[in-house]
Design goal:
Layout (H helix, E strand, L loop, with lengths): L5 E6 L1 H4 L11 H11 L5 E6 L2 H10 L9 H6 L1 H21 L4 E3 L7 E3 L2 E4 L3 H8 L3 E5 L1 E5 L3 E5 L1 H11 L4 E6 L20 E2 L4 H7 L11 H10 L7 E6 L5 H6 L6 E4 L2
Parallel strand pairs: 1-2, 1-9, 2-6, 3-6, 4-7, 9-11, 10-12
Antiparallel strand pairs: 4-5, 7-8, 11-12
């Protein structure tokens, strides 16, 4: 097993891709800047990629996220979703290695089996061996075979929650395109305010107001994401949601300095 502290960081798809561009396009400027900031990590590192344009557009086109999509349509979308996510993950791998962070991509598709949209099997032996070799792991939201549905989407947020829990991560950082969790959608409500801390005392109230993403997203929306992240908040584990699109905020969190974000705790 891993003998050193572990950081799990999610790179939001809306930051590393140009989410409304079709066909999908990687935001290479942001990716290079993020890679340089990741050099401040002094722990073992898992980088989880959101799908952004590369995942969500293809998944949506083939009926993922709908309940009435037939099996043939779902299965026919696997090659395009996999191709797009492979392109994205290889660009991240290239840039991390370029800035001096030894990294490899370990995709979920050949490893994970789902059952009705939930993880049934996710072997971690190879991933653990790679981390113990002081190589950063890049893993991404993906389409996976499903015992019930034929195929289903494994979101980056679910991967974060699963790996952080199974590998006892010391901190979890969720990079998005907003400053954290707000009292309402800040893009449409000028009175929305940042919620700096979420814990057992206010989680129910926040979940009541949490709605779906304003852009195309087939991975469950904010309600499910908050529940998954809340499950990680225990003891000294740090869970923080922050604006990855603002230069320097990731650096400050990796250096254990304060910055604008939402902290989730017990």
């Amino acid at each position: 097993m891993i003998l050193s502290p572990l950081t799990v960081i999610k790179l939001g798809g809306s930051v590393i891709t140009k989410k409304r561009k079709s066909p999908p396009e990687i935001d290479k400027e942001n990716v290079l800047r993020i890679a340089k900031e990741l050099r401040h990590c002094r722990e073992k590192l898992i980088v989880v990629l959101g799908g952004g344009a590369h995942g969500h557009q293809a998944a949506h086109a083939y009926g993922y996220g709908r309940t009435d999509t037939d099996l043939e349509e779902l299965l026919s979308g696997i090659p395009l979703i996999r191709h797009n996510m492979s392109l994205l993950s290889l660009e991240i791998e290239t840039q991390l290695n370029h800035v001096g962070i030894p990294s490899v991509v370990i995709p979920p598709f050949p490893l994970v089996i789902m059952k009705d949209g939930e993880i049934l099997s996710f072997p971690l032996d190879t991933l653990i061996r790679v981390l113990d070799a002081n190589i950063a792991v890049i893993i991404h939201g993906d389409v996976c075979m499903d015992d019930v549905r034929g195929a289903s989407i494994l979101s980056g947020d679910t991967i974060v929650a699963h790996l952080a829990k199974e590998l006892n991560a010391s901190r979890v950082l969720i990079g998005t395109d907003v400053d954290g969790i707000f009292s309402a959608n800040p893009s449409i409500d000028t009175d929305a305010t940042l919620i700096p801390k979420i814990n057992k005392s206010n989680i129910d109230e926040i979940l009541e107001s949490a709605g779906p993403s304003s852009s195309t997203d087939v991975t469950g929306g904010m309600h499910r994401k908050l529940l998954e992240l809340m499950s990680l908040a225990r003891g000294d584990s740090q869970v923080r949601i922050f604006n990855l699109s603002v230069p320097g905020r990731l650096t400050r969190l990796l250096d254990d300095e304060s910055t604008i974000c939402t902290t989730i705790s017990e």
